Each structure stands twice: as structure tokens, then as C-alpha cells.
Amino acid sequence: MLDAILSAPVFLAAFVFVISIVVVFHELGHYWVGRWCGAKAEAFSLGFGPRLAGWTDRHGTEWQIAAFPVGGYVRFVGDADASSAPDPQELEALRRKLVAERGPDATRGVFHFLPVWRRALIVAAGPVANFILAIIIFTLLFSIFGAQTQPPVIGGVEADSPAEAAGLMEGDRIVSIGGRRVASFGDLSNIVMLSAGETMPVVVERGGDTVTLTATPARMTREDPIGGDMDVGFLGVRSNGETQTQRYNPAEAVVMGANQTWGVVASTGRYLGRVIAGKESAEMLGGPVRIATYSGRLAIDSFEGEASFGEKLRAALVRLISLAGVLSVGLGLINLAPIPVLDGGHLLYYGFEAASGRPLSERAQAFGFKAGLALVAGLMLFATWNDLNYLRGLFS
Predict the structure, then answer these.
(1) Residue 120's Cα: distance from chain center in Å?
(2) CATH topology of domain 147-246
């Protein structure tokens, strides 16, 4: 208990660092594209709550640092409502007021008076910025540090395992599994962990020949990178221990960064699809508590060992920035969900407006936002419950 209390500031600092990178870049995406589309930004805040410091730029945008430095937000003119739900009566009153005070061109720059395609671009820019951030992060990591990989060569097969039942042998080089190519032992692990109970073809190179086998990964409770438990697919093969360090030039690093980002998207989509199909438990869906736990544990573990303080600090930053890349993809995907109050919900409304030539009715929008808010709140409660159960297992 004492260790947990003493570690709390580290967990909090790591969580704020990771979340701020991801959320602020998301909001900057909205801001940059909003500027390009002619929307006037009233404020951009780093954090929430009371204003601690700030300045106003030459475009009239107030930049501020707030008391609670977790994320941030951008607010465009005419977009004061937190859900961005336009109220027709308020918009009409705003239009009349602006025209009366400043003339017929005064509505230019007001978010809800922009053409629907511009509003859609501004809304989509947040999730897109998250994917771009992930590519940038992974590209920098690949270009600066390269990547350590293990070739997909089997160094051992566990007794009574799905691998043994399938006929896999020591020395086999796995070419593909389930129709997906395998370039490293990490690729194999990533595929197998989300394939419990799924019978898959396994193509291996053995003694100069190509052999096709059939394997069905079992489900096993294993330890995750920070000591918690997770149920994943299990094949029962070990690496031969060989490690290769691959260096990448800038162009190669960009390709690898994009591939890594797509890999996170594909894995997330596959997991959610299996949850919906009842093939995976939803207990791996986590929220802020688990993010704080992961980030804090990564930071603390980085400072263990005999390395110098500078080397430990660099290791902590690399780990946390890498985690920010993964979370950035997650935030982008979540916000693209077609749920009102999220970016994807706004895009759904704008799609209807573009197709029909008129906005969805005020009543329908209000109902959608209430339903969306309830759904998001329910998902947050579910994720928090999962997080608490996870912590109970981690510290028990």
C-alpha cells in the first residue's frame, strides 16, 4: 500500500503526459483544418478548468493554460455547446445579431454557418490527426532506434500444446498463419493472441520444403507487460532466441510507421469484432484508470536497473511516447464511431444533411445526442468497472 501511495505522483505525471499528447494533437487537428476552412477559433485550451495563463494571437484566438492539464479543447465561434449540437433558434438569433451589428458578412467564420462539407472536414480532422500523430511517433522510433525482431523460427514446442497437436516442430520457419504472412515472431504472437478457438492453416518451411498444417490456438491466462492477467490465444511455441536489429532510413521508417499504425487499427478492429461475435471477453476494454496504470508502471519500470539517470529517463520517455502512439490510434477510432456527441456522430448528421439538403430535425438531433451521451457514459462506466477488476488482480 505504501509503495502505491509513493508511486501515485509518477502514475499521475505519466498519465497526464501521455493523454495530453494524444488529446491536444486531436484538438490541434480540428483547429488547423478549421482555420483552413474559414472557421474562427475563439479559444484553444491546454487543459481544463480555471485559466492560469494565456495570450491572444493575431487571429483573435485566445490560447490558455488551464489548471487541470489533462488534454484540452478548441472552441470555434458559434460552437460554445460542448456537444456541438446546433440549436436552430439560437443560431438564427446569433445570425440576426451579427448581421445587425457587423453587416451581412459577419456570419463568415461562424462554425455552424459554414457549408456542410467544411464542417465535416473540421470534425474529421481530429481523428485523422490522431492517426497522423501515431504514424509520426512510430516513424521517429523506427528511424532513431530501429526495431529488434525475432525471426519466426520455432526454437521449441511445448508438450500437450496446440502446436504439438498440429505437428509443428523445432526448426520450422512459419511463413503464414490463418492466411496472414508472418515476418517475425512478434507477428505470430499478435495473430495467435486473438485467435483462440479458431482453426487456422499454418504454412511452414521445413527442410527446404513448404508444409501446410492446421492449428487451433487454445485460450490461456497469461501475464501482460505490467504484471496483470489477460486471456489470450495460446499456440505453444518458443522462439529460437535469435534477435535481429533492423535500421531504417527515413523513407523506410515512414512506411514502417504507417504499417505499425495500420496494425494497431487492424488488431483493434479484430478484437472488437470478436467481442461482438462472443468469441472474446470484453474485459480488455479499459479506460483512464488502466491507461494511468500502464503509463505509470512503464515509467517506474524504466527507472529500475543499473543504467544512468539520463538513460533511464530516455527509456521512460521512449516507452511513454510509444504508448501515446497506440493510444492515439485508439482515440481516433473511438471518435469515428457513429455515436452522437462523438466526431463520428457529427459526421453521420452531416452526411444526412448533405444527402437531403437540410439538417436533421432539432428533435431528432436532441434525441440522438441524449442517446449518444447515455451510451458513452455507459461505456465509460463499463470500462471503469473493468479497470477496477484489473487493478484488483494486479495488486492482489
Answers:
(1) 21
(2) Pdz3 Domain (2.30.42)
